[in-house]
Design brief:
The protein has 289 residues and is of the alpha/beta class. Helices cover 41% and strands 20% of the residues. It folds into two domains: 135 residues, HUPs (Rossmann fold); 135 residues, Rossmann fold. Helix 1 packs across helix 2 and helix 3 runs parallel beside helix 4. The two termini are 19 Å apart.
Length: 289
């Protein structure tokens, strides 16, 4: 453990929520907080007459964004060490470089400038898909704590990494863990209802298999209250609905079956769009560069 939580800021309301989440996470982890602002290059950085004053104004704004975020973080938890970093470059590359070695990188769901649409656009999906550690996207924070972490699990190697992270979050928060397996049935033909008994049996068999996979996790984390839920339907629906009463939803970066292509495909995209709480995207060890 590096003992460091990193957060990207751009002066937006979403980034302010990300700072709040990141500082709370640093407290739970007994870690330091690193606040990062990436100043994107613009034409004023090029050498031409009278560009200096405009460039100075941009730099001053960037320093003000960092200072405001630092003040908010220190007010929220005065005893936590806070580091700030101002870099120039592309947002995703700058955040990846400055957050390297951190236990987690936190970003706002929407923002200004280079952060605009970060959670749902190509830049945000690229960040979540290639940063080696967990990425938490904060669109909103609940006014109350529900004491529950939700994780999508399908038995794949990437979802094992998500499950491991979710157990850690549940322990740090002293929260319950809700494990959701969502199975979206195949459609064989316009008259798929004729396959009802077969599909029901497949669902039951797969659910039993998932429970066997979870058994050693339960044994290893016996102190954590775990609820297993199997859902016959689209995983976006299951995870989104359960996010209403969760403090965090965790998904793997890729997976099999219902959670397939969880970062670069429709599931993660849908959850990031719709979740009512922060979403953590977790990559397996050794991937993400």
């Amino acid at each position: 453990m590096a003992g460091l939580v990193a957060v990207g800021v751009d002066g937006s309301e979403a980034a302010t929520l990300a700072v709040d989440y990141a500082m709370d996470d640093a407290v739970r982890r007994r870690a330091a907080l690193k606040i990062i602002h990436v100043r994107e290059p613009w034409i004023g950085d090029l050498a031409f007459q009278d560009a200096g004053a405009l460039s100075d104004a941009v730099n001053q704004h960037s320093r003000a964004v960092l200072a405001a975020a630092e003040r908010r973080a220190r007010e929220r938890a005065p005893g936590v060490p806070v580091i700030t970093s101002l870099v120039t470059g592309r947002v995703t590359e700058g955040l990846r470089a400055e957050a390297e070695g951190a236990d987690v990188l936190v970003i706002g769901g929407r923002g200004l400038g280079g952060f605009a649409g970060l959670a749902v656009g190509s830049a945000g999906l690229g960040l979540a898909g290639h940063f080696p550690g967990p990425v938490v996207v904060v669109r909103q924070l609940a006014a109350v704590s529900y004491g529950q972490v939700v994780v999508g699990y399908d038995g794949s190697y990437p979802s094992e990494a998500a499950l491991d992270y979710a157990f850690g979050e549940a322990e740090r928060r002293n929260a319950r863990l809700k494990v959701i397996y969502a199975w979206q049935q195949p459609v064989f033909a316009p008259y798929a209802e004729g396959y009802g008994p077969v599909l029901s049996r497949l669902f039951d068999e797969r659910t039993a298999e998932i429970r066997r996979y979870l058994a050693p996790w339960r044994e290893k984390n016996a102190r954590i209250n775990v609820d297993e839920t199997s859902f016959a339907g689209h995983p976006i629906i299951a995870l989104t609905e359960n996010s209403r009463t969760a403090d965090l939803v965790v998904v793997g970066s890729r997976g099999m079956g219902a959670l397939g292509s969880a970062v670069l495909g429709s599931v993660s995209h849908g959850v990031l769009h719709r979740a009512f709480c922060p979403v953590a995207v977790v990559r397996p060890p050794g991937e993400g560069r």
